[in-house]
Structure to design on (187 residues):
């Protein structure tokens, strides 16, 4: 009985000692981590460059020379050296967030954009205004003056404060297209 116990103990000990070596044999060189990046080219996609950087095209976008690739972090640092690349950036996953509601006047008055406090409205500034730095652009003098906007939406609220026509006018007589014909008019 002692002999069987000793053999069992010896076998267990050998397995325990040998197990790290068996795992070590299975481990090869550490695989380089790859990340997703968007690469935009000036004129056309350089497939040879992507191949040379050992990256894999995940998505090729239509109508623009942009690809989403999986590329190693070592090769990402090399992208800036190629003149045919316009820009590159991480291909981040975008998730919707709940809308942040901030009273318009609190932001605009703080930024000094309302010269007359009577002009402040009870509107809400959507969270995206801050996100795209729209107020900084407006501070640089870009107001949108002279920009024409066409809206094709029959459900628009033309009484909304943001849609007040300042000195301009809209004449549908000048814009007669097929979209204006409902099918019930006499021709």
């Amino acid at each position: 009985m002692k002999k069987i116990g000793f053999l069992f103990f010896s076998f267990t000990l050998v397995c325990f000692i040998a197990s790290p070596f068996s795992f070590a044999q299975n481990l090869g060189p550490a695989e380089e981590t790859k990340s997703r990046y968007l690469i935009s080219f000036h004129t056309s996609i350089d497939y040879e460059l992507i191949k040379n950087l050992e990256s894999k095209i995940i998505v090729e976008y239509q109508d623009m020379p942009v690809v989403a690739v999986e590329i190693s972090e070592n090769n990402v640092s090399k992208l800036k050296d190629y003149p045919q690349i316009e820009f590159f950036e991480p291909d981040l996953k975008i998730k919707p967030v709940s809308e942040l509601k901030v009273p318009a006047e609190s932001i605009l008055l703080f930024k000094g954009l309302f010269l007359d406090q009577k002009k402040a409205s009870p509107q809400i500034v959507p969270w995206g205004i801050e996100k795209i730095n729209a107020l900084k652009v407006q501070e640089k003098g870009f107001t949108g003056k002279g920009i024409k906007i066409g809206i094709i939406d029959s459900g628009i609220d033309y009484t909304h404060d943001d849609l007040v026509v300042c000195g301009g006018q809209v004449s549908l007589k000048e814009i007669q297209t097929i979209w204006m014909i409902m099918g019930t008019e006499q021709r």
